[in-house]
Amino acid sequence: MAWARAPRRVPFWWPLALCGVAGALLGGGYGLLADREYAASGYVVVRDTGEGADPAAAVGLAQAFGRIATGDAVLTTAQTDAGVSLDRLRDGVRASTSPDAPMIEITGTAPRAARAAEMANAVTRALIAYGNDAADSTGARLTVFAEAQPSAAPVSAAPLVRLAVGLVAGLLVGLLVLLVRTNAGDPPGPVTTVPAQPRDQSGRHDPSEERERERAAPRPRTDRPMSGRPG
């Protein structure tokens, strides 16, 4: 005789597991398909050539040149040398300065390490040419401190890291879904019904009617039959 198997109930934590697997797959897939990003940095030094040169003045000039390093006046000259479009230079090159030293850091990012170094060096050369052309008015000279070199390791997250991030994000979403399902499945509390109070014609509470209802209600008998004792 074949016994019919009872249907198995789906575990209550299935949204957590499903969202975790989905998040891990999405994160790992994005890590494999996304382009790797490489970064390369070059450095420019600013020297104050005016009479009575002040180191603090050189720092201020470096910060001023750092703000225009990613402007169109410099990038338009650098785009031909870098071999990329102007929009690509705007997105892939950034400049930063130090509050203590007259130095400008030019960093390029690209899917290839060699391209990142080429972009950074092109902007570095264009900035130096732009600054030295205005040396008579600014009293500053710009020179290369260090050229950008191709990086051996990417700066973007590795596929395993993105997989872990996707897994954590999926688990958080699954936990939220699980909490919502748990709160939605709670049974409602008992409903207490309050009997209506008798009221007179004016709508006010009438205590006389309530006393009449109490008198008319049957009362339980409290007397017990007496049992006779045999003589």
UniProtKB/TrEMBL annotation:
Highest rank taxon of the organism: Bacteria
Biased composition range(s): Basic and acidic residues: 201-231
Region Disordered: start-end pairs: 184-231
Regions that span the bilayer: 12-33, 160-180
Protein name as annotated: Chain length determinant protein
Keywords, alphabetical: Membrane, Transmembrane, Transmembrane helix
Lineage of producing organism: Bacteria, Bacillati, Actinomycetota, Actinomycetes, Kitasatosporales
